[in-house]
Amino acid sequence: MKIGVIGVAACGKTTLFNALTGGEAGTGGYGASQIHIGVAQVADERVDALTEIFHPKKTTYATVDFADVPGLGESREGASQRAEGESIPQALEGADALVLVLRAFDDPGVPHPRGSVDPARDLGDMKLDLILRDLSVVERRRERLEKLVAKKKDPDEMAEFELLGRLQGALEEGKPLSDQELGEKEIARLRGFGFLSAKPILVVINVGEDRINEPPEAFAFVKEEVGTEPVVLCAQLEAELSQLPEEERDVFLSDYGLAQPARDRVILASFDLLGLQSFLTVGEDEVRAWPIRKGTSALHAAGTIHSDLERGFIRAEVVSYEDFMAAGSMAAARDRGILRVEGKEYEVKDGEIMHVRFNV
Ligand SMILES: Nc1nc2c(ncn2[C@@H]2O[C@H](COP(=O)(O)OP(=O)(O)OP(=O)(O)O)[C@@H](O)[C@H]2O)c(=O)[nH]1
Ligand SMILES: [Mg+2]
């Protein structure tokens, strides 16, 4: 699962990307920079606590992939400088969700392509940009289909033509495709297009150091426009923080009056945006968080660990993280009778510790 980081040129996308992934990609390129792909670890106190208990050889956190894409919207100058063969929309089409960065920091050293800092305007522009990209995809496909349907009345193509016509109407009214009520069949029909305005969006407000403790409600326009609260952070501080050695981070955070790195909140919110949750496995070899979609069965969860576990699945032994911590060990959990035995169809919950019995 991958998240695309988007925003107007020089809003701090690459800086945020570095903070999320611990990377050191070049910033300040004004859209001329390349696409960056990186992996972010999902901070998880449960994994930390279990590591303290099991002292495993290895600890593995769940991860989310991020793709940092040079500025959309106002970065047309940047786009024209971009190297041939780097298809920006294509990198985004493959994304399962978007993180939209809005610049709210003032810095005369970093000119805004529109001449002024105005996150509400930029949000409107970006939304429109996504809609216009989708509209052009829909129009091109409909033109092709129109010719095909005129020659041969293929029912599938006719249904697609009709569906795209409906979407075109909505897009022309400036409505994102995420507002459309679509049936399962229709969603399947549209999957291959990678429509940008259909993707779930998390908004990140990139503020200056002086505003990092402002609540998301200070940016009420975000909730009105996209339906969810933004994460407020200073990307530059977060990037510096991610480069610090572990032991220096707490001092840095308290200097700025922060309880935890904002990057962790962005990653967690992204994880949630993708409809993911984690189940946990424990042992002397490894303590690990495994990302799965909400609603995943024990059988498929087992399959994410290894295909053998899915093929030879017998049963899963399951205990919630809280119950496990109260018991103190797997043996104690078993003795207390809180270690449940579940079958293939069992719907795994977030934070459950699972042990799969299998036979191949
Ligand atoms: N003052 C301040 N400067 C920032 C902040 N975040 C980013 N910058 C600076 O703004 C400039 C642009 O940041 P980038 O991260 O390259 O922005 P971008 O969105 O990736 O830009 P493009 O890829 O060119 O579209 C750089 O010089 C950053 O150092 C911030 O929170 N505060
Ligand atoms: Mg960049």
* Number of discrete domains: 3
Bound molecules: guanosine-5'-triphosphate, magnesium ion
> What is the distance, rounded to the nearest whole angstrom, between the alpha carbons of the first and last residues?
29 Å
Q: Helix and strand string, N-terminal first?
A: EHEHEEHHEHHHEHEHHHEEHHEHHEE
The stretches of 5 or more residues where confidence is low (pLDDT under 50) are 74-86
Structural class: alpha/beta
How much strand? 15-25%
Strand order of the largest sheet: 2-4-1-5-6-7
Number of strands: 12
Question: What does this protein look like?
Answer:
By secondary structure, the chain is α/β, with parallel strands linked by helices. Helices cover 42% and strands 19% of the residues. It has helices spanning 13-21, 45-54, 76-81, 88-93, 119-151, 155-172, 184-190, 220-226, 235-243, 246-255, 262-273, 298-305, 307-311, 321-327, 330-335; strands spanning 2-6, 36-41, 58-60, 63-68, 97-103, 201-206, 231-233, 276-281, 286-293, 313-320, 340-342, 352-358. It has a 6-stranded mixed beta sheet with strand order 2-4-1-5-6-7, with helices on both faces. It is flat. The two termini are 29 Å apart. The structure holds guanosine-5'-triphosphate (GTP) and magnesium ion. Residues 7, 9-15, 27-31, 33, 70-71, 75, 78, 105, 107, 110, 206, 208, 234-236 line the site of guanosine-5'-triphosphate (GTP).
